[in-house]
Amino acid sequence: MAATRLKKRQFPDSGEEFYFNQLDNGITVFLLPKKDFKETFAAISSRFGSIDTEFTVDGKLKKYPAGIAHFLEHQLFEMEKGTDASYEFTKLGADSNAYTDFNKTVYYFSAVDSIKENLALLQDFTSKAIFTDASIENEKDIIAQEIDMYQDDADDFLYQGILAKLYPKTPLAEDIVGSQASIRDLTKHDLEENFRYFYHPSNLILLVVGSFDVKQVYKDIVTVQKEGPQIKPPQIEHSDLKLLPVTSASSLQKDITLPKLAVGFRFNFIGKKTKSLLREKLLLKLFFSLLFGWTSQRYQKWYEEGKIDDSFDMKIEVSASYQFVVIMLDTKEPIAMSNQIRQAVKKFEADENLSEAHLQTLRNELYGDFISSLDSIDTLANQFIDNLWQKETYFDFPKVLQSLEIKEVMEFGRQIMTDMQVTDFTLFPK
């Protein structure tokens, strides 16, 4: 594998820069030198998340049980001779972990010393899969307990419940960890196949952030990647979510002291002509923050009247496959609050919260968050991974943010109203 030249991108507005290249085996490397950081953070991200349970490989349709991406994440930490990758990182003085979300699985470490060794370990344990029947059965028991834990958490239960209403009979309706039934159905063969499909270097991103010698770290990465088998990548086509209408509002009783309400909004505004995913993300965030964020008059009024408290939360997700907003809150008046939230969105054009002055306040706040993130190694790394889309990166954030004016937010609002679907889910005390 030839150590081809690194490419460089610079961002004069923020003073940031990064180096990148795709190696011969397909893995894409991003290096973000930050000389003021004392530690180094590295991550390997696979484009394999909880929604990837149905897809085609080399033209053949494949279907797998819910929770397989998360299960595989757990299994990869088990290395040869029964060793655990977490323990090996600890011996090298590093903190390590992993997570699975809707569309990716990420493995990472942070360390001050032994960067070369930690980086080699990160690449090693994510490139080999050691599956035994005993370890799989043991993992099933562990994840079954994890599923029970999420079911007992009222906020997790509420969030998963509203997603199931927004995206019925799709992978988004299933918890990222799967269900008791789907985990029981997983086989060793399923895991081996999915590892082969989604952990091929061509489906991976390797990111390093921190204080390090760019040329040396790149050379070390190329050396490790050369040692791996050079296998032709499988041709994977991810299936689109099969969207059914949202299901109507419903409620359940749970062991809680105050009713919990989730209002969900489903959209479908990302298409093949979309040039900037970051722009669409920001427009949706700005639109809902102008209406319901803590800087809005509505939020302040509700808070002063005791209609909401610090439990009020907005979750906003935008990807090429799905776009939704979920508003969650503890409230004594779930029916009235659901109606007020729905009406506020419906009648946004006459809302005084949607003003250029308010938008500028939000722009300043979001820009401040961006600048702060540049000084937090894990926030910066995770935002960088989250915002990779075509040639766009997290460092394009300020330019996109400053380009958005209130007329564009209003036009965006009109656009998303055309196919918006709304539902809600309430938990009442027993």
Walk me through the topology.
Blueprint: E1 7-11, E2 16-22, E3 28-33, E4 40-46, E5 54-57, E6 60-63, H1 68-76, H2 85-91, E7 95-100, E8 105-111, H3 115-125, H4 133-152, H5 154-166, H6 180-185, H7 188-198, E9 204-210, H8 214-227, E10 236-238, E11 250-254, E12 260-267, H9 277-292, H10 297-304, E13 313-318, E14 323-330, H11 334-346, H12 356-373, H13 377-386, H14 397-403, H15 406-417, E15 421-429
Parallel strand pairs: 3-9, 11-15
Antiparallel strand pairs: 1-2, 2-3, 4-8, 4-9, 5-6, 5-10, 7-8, 12-14, 12-15, 13-14
Distance between the termini: 63 Å
Q: Which percent range describes the beta-strand content? A: 15-25%
CATH superfamily of the largest domain: Metalloenzyme, LuxS/M16 peptidase-like
Total of helices = 15
Report the principal-axis shape.
globular
Percent helix range: 40-55%
The CATH topology of the largest domain is given as Cytochrome Bc1 Complex, Chain A, domain 1
Main sheet attributes: strand count, strand direction, barrel closure: 7 strands, mixed
Q: Overall mean pLDDT score?
A: 95
Strand order of the largest sheet: 1-2-3-9-4-8-7
TL;DR of this structure?
The protein is of the alpha+beta class and 430 residues long. It has helices at 68-76, 85-91, 115-125, 133-152, 154-166, 180-185, 188-198, 214-227, 277-292, 297-304, 334-346, 356-373, 377-386, 397-403, 406-417, and strands spanning 7-11, 16-22, 28-33, 40-46, 54-57, 60-63, 95-100, 105-111, 204-210, 236-238, 250-254, 260-267, 313-318, 323-330, 421-429.
